[in-house]
Amino acid sequence: MRRAVLVEPEKIVIEEVERPKPGEGEVLIRVEVCGICGSDIHMFHGTHPFVKPPIVQGHEFSGVVEEIGPGVSRIEVGKRVTVEPSLICGRCYNCLRGRYNICNELRVLGAQADGAFAEYIAVPERTVYEVPENMSFEEGALVEPLSVAVHAVERSSLEVGNNVVILGAGPIGLLITQVARVGGADRIVVTDLYERRLELAREFGADITINAKREDPVEVIHEELGRDGVDIVFEAVGVEATINQAIEMVRKGAEIVVVGVYGKSPQVKMGLIQDREIVVKGVLMYAWNYPTAIRLIGERRVDVMRLITHRYPLTELEEAYRLLDREKEKTLKVMIYPQLT
Ligand SMILES: [Zn+2]
Ligand SMILES: [Zn+2]
Q: Which of 37, 51, 194, 272 is the most exposed, fewest CB within 10 Å of its CB?
């Protein structure tokens, strides 16, 4: 089978290797679609804080069960599935309390273990979720990023009627916009540097959008909603400018949910966090959020398909990364098809 290996930053090699055999408790999946995530772009450039090549990337995928290993009882050959890419110990403090996304020994497929930019992948049965008949493979692959958004909103203290701001209208920001709507947010404000993304944010339920290239988000928000207008900010960019905007725009005593991955360590206005009793909450991946995400897509309460802007075969993965770098305005979700040649 073929797989795409990131051998060093910015260099991908397509390798021909033996198809993996599912071991005890493992399921072999023929990968149909695998999305490129913002964190993959960090890995590609060698700027991801917790991942270093060589690695087979790819953690947002769906496919068909090709073979099952000994001891597998819950999943059958031929089923259409999506996979939660977390490999966990199941024994540490947080695993035992159900917060396995922050397992002490967490490894993520496509980051610390080989992922799904490959024709086949063997994964533990626990990680495999069947997708309903009315869901496409593309929707199945997008269960992963949607689960990030579901987890972020679930971990926040969002209550019906709260005003929320989402900094960054990339795929995750746009999904948080939709989930916040489902979760009962009142006013939703979204910021980004690109008009096209803001347009999509409005279609997904944002009441106010701010182009941070042209306007100061903190000023606009204080004008539109007042100093006490923002209950929760979701920071979905991961740079110094946006985390500090979040600190300055949120009402005193309110909450910032940090979703973005920080390539560089930012200078954060800690003084204001202290002085205004701001609560900063980090969120990582998801725990037990796949069933909700599958339902939201299956019931068409969240639209993931409109995030897809480009499609490439596996052999053109490197080109897909170059496109994402070059065309920030035109790209959102780029999908890779390992079975296509
Ligand atoms: Zn991802
Ligand atoms: Zn653990």
A: 272
